[in-house]
Each structure stands twice: as structure tokens, then as C-alpha cells.
Amino acid sequence: MNEIRTSVLTRVEGHGTIEVEHDGKNALKAQVNIIEGPRLIEQIVHGRTIDEMLSIVVRICAICSVSHKYAALRAVEGALDVKVPEKVHLLRTLLHYGEMIESHSLHLFLLALPDLLGYSSAVGMLDKHRDLVLNGLRIKAFGNKIMQTVNARYIHGENATVGRFGRYPENSELEPLRREAEELIPIADHCIRLLGKLHPPSYYERETQFLCLEPIGGQFGYVGDEIIVSNGTKFAVSEAFDHIKERTVSHSYAKRSTYKGRSFMVGALARINLLGERLTGLAGRAYRQNYTPRWLKNPLYNNHAQAIEMLFCLENVSALIDEIVRLPNPPEPEITNKSGDHIGAVEAPRGLLLHHHVIEDGIVIKSNIVTPTAQNLDNIEYYLKATTENLLQTDEPPSTLADKLEILIRAYDPCISCSVHVVTNVVEQSS
Q1: Helix, coil or strand: residue 231
Q2: 431 domain-assigned
Q3: Is 4 helix (H, G, I), strand (E, B) or coil?
Q4: Alpha carbon of 122 to those of 67, 111, 127, 136: distances in Å?
Q5: How far apart are CA 297 and CA 390, in angstroms?
Q6: 362 with 50: CB under 8 angstroms?
Q7: CB-based burial of residue 426 (10 Å sphere; 0-12 exposed, 13-18 middle, 19+ buried)?
Q8: Considering the domain boundaries, does residue 288 fall inside one?
């Protein structure tokens, strides 16, 4: 029996390891061991007021805090039948774009490009690719600037709340964001052109299925009330747990998810595979110039998909600000209901994020949070096994296998701290 093990996963958010066993031809076991301690968020918010819950869930992650707040807000507003004014919706969209820009640029320029260009880290790239790294940091800083402007701070912002914002940014604060976004578009476009020349190896390939939200309005976007599957199926977010089945496993503090008994992938690659034809402008051009059927089989194209989404967000900042500045600040919404039950869904940078909150007399009595990485973990293991078996048929030295499997995992851009939500680790049989 041969083993491939890593003591730690590098250049990912959180703590995990790889454990693969093979007989020289077949992978007999392939595991991502999520060893970071459970966060117990669902238990912490139990018995809390709505405002307390919203302040707690935003702290699940410093990278995806906007998405967690947004999904939780959609759950609360759906449960209490709160109508969201147009300006609030537009500002949330801008805020969401800021998170996408920040998160995607962090992953692309600092975590993924070293793999694709043959370096051990972004620091190692500085000698030959200094401008590339610095431009990536510039785009990342801009994403942070959007979040700070709209949400009062760029980590764990509290300004967005039920049906409104605590403070609406002045038009004079938004105008500079428009100009800077336009300046950064050529940099993002250059990143896509670079990635277009980098073709991931075929040993990462195998057929899989993809899930993402059907955006409201039928265009490309990150918020919706329906989930679409790559087999053509579509179902309401309210029915999500009838279709997406969670379970626990003994080697992980993160739950796992299957659809129809099979693993699936969520994230930028899922969105581009299912919605890419809807892209317009420079992002649409980039999609049509770079997309091939290999994107349906190779998870490393998630890096390319993130680059297209980064361009999409930058490209749409100006038009979004144009709409926002024309609208007056809305009055505070009237909230008369105190009880309800709803699932709020958004697309986080890493994929489909579900927040289910049950509220009774203004108190949260039950919660379940299903994160993108928790949904992707089964699929990562599926590809670990496939990639190992494919590599064993090549002349690749055994000493390189662990590095190549780490590259695979990094392509999913996992957020391990988001994923560890197991309350009790009652192990069910894997599908």
C-alpha cells in the first residue's frame, strides 16, 4: 500500500491535510481531513435576537463576511416579509461586488498564480512578475475600499441591516469608486489574457456536476431564489434541503453535501459553466475567447472563471453607481412580523451559500448554515481520487504527487473556517 500525505495544506484559508492511499493503479482512499476546530455558529445564535444573530454570522469569516451577512439578511427578510427598497438592493449588489473583487484577486494573484506559473509562493514571483503581484494587491485593495465605503468597514461590516443601511454613503464617496474601477479593468483583462495561455493538465479531468443560483432577473449575478443544476434541473431555494443532503464524516469537522447521491461543485467555475453565455461586455468577450468544454471537467479552470468574474464586477461598478446616486435614501422599512422561517441564498465567492433561520417572537430558535466549501469537499475528494489514478498512469515521479494534489485543492479556493459547522459528529455512511 502506498500513501500520499501532507502535514498541512498550504496557501488555503484554514487548517487541513490530504490523505490518499493507492496500490500503484487505483486510489483506494482519498480524504481531505478538515482538522480545524468546529465553530458551533448555529448553536451560538440559538436564542439570540435577530440583530445579535446578524452580528455573529458576519464573523464566520473575514473574507466572506459580506456574503454571510447578505444570506442571513435574505433569510430574515423572507421570514418576516420585509420589502427591500431598490437603493438598498443596489448598494448590497455593489457591496457584494467588492467582496468578489477582493476575494478573487487574493486567490488569483497570491495563491493560484504561483501554481500556474511554477513558483512556490507569490514572493517567489516578485523577481520576474513584480507588476503582476502588485497589480493584484491593488485590485484587492479596491475591493476592500468598496466594502469599507458601503459597509462602514471592510471586515465584519455592520452597516447593512434588515431592509436598510444604518448610514447611506454620500454620492461624493461613491464617485471615486467609479473612476478607480475603470482604471483597474485593463489590469483584470490582462490577467485573463495571461491565464488564457495557461492550460491545466488533463490528468485533473473527470466528469462532474455543478450547482449555482439562478440570478433574479435572468442575467449573470449572485443572488436568486432558485438553484439550477448542470443536468438542467431547477428547484426553489426553499426546497434546497429536499435536494442537497448533508452528512458528517469521521475525518472532518465540516459537513458534506451531495445532490442525487453524488458530489457536485459550486463556485466561480459552476457559475461560468451554467451562466457564462449571459455575460456581456469585456467579460462576455473573455468568456467566449477562453471557454472550452474542458471547463466542464477540470476544476483548475476555477481560476480562469474567477478572473472573468473579477472583470465582470469591475466592469459593472460604474453603471451600478450611476443607478445608486440617482435614488434618494429610502425611509426605514416597517417591520410588523416577528416570526417566520426562511432560507436565504447568495453566491459567495466560493459558491452557493445557504442560511436557514427560524425566528419566533424576534428570537432565533433554529439555524443551519451550508457553506460553499462544505458542499465542495466531497467533490474535492472525488477529484483527488481521479487525479491520483490519472497521475499513476503517467511518468510523473511519485515525489511530485502531493504537490499536484495540493494544486487541485487550491483551485477550489477553499475557506475551511467557513466550513467547520458540525455540532455533533454523528457519522453517516458516505455515498
Answers
A1: coil
A2: no
A3: strand
A4: 27, 7, 10, 10
A5: 13
A6: yes
A7: exposed
A8: yes
User: Residue 427 domain-assigned?
Assistant: no
Count of domains observed in the chain: 1
Q: Which of 220, 55, 66 is nearest to 146 (CA)?
A: 66
Separation between Cα atoms, residue 356 and residue 367, nearest integer Å:
5
Residue 220 lies in a domain: yes
Other beta carbons less than 10 A from residue 123's beta carbon: 11
Give the bridge partners for 358, in sequence order: 341, 366
Q: How far apart are CA 235 and CA 238, in angstroms?
A: 8
Q: Which three cell numbers stand for residue 121?
A: 509562493
CATH code, 257: 1.10.645.10
pLDDT tens column, 307-350: 999 999 999 999 999 999 999 999 999 999 999 999 999 999 99
Amino acid at 213: L
3-class DSSP state for residue 290? helix
Element (H, E) at 52: helix 50-57
Alpha carbon 177 to chain centroid, angstroms: 23
Domain membership of residue 294 as a residue range = 2-419
Using CA atoms, how far apart are residues 27 and 38, in angstroms rounded to an integer?
Answer: 29
Amino acid letter, residue 182: E
C-alpha cell at 148: 469599507
pLDDT tens, 229-255?
A: 999 999 999 999 999 999 999 898 899
* H or E segment and range at residue 286: helix 281-290
pTM of the model: 0.96
Q: What are phi and psi of 371, to 5 degrees?
A: -95, 160
Where are the extended beta strands (E) located within 216-339?
A: 224-229, 234-236, 244-247, 256-259
* Closest listed residue to residue 34, CA positions, set 431, 349, 412, 422: 422
Angle at which helices 268-275 and 301-325 pack, to 10 degrees? 80
Q: Which of 332, 330, 272, 310 is closest to 146 using CA atoms?
A: 310
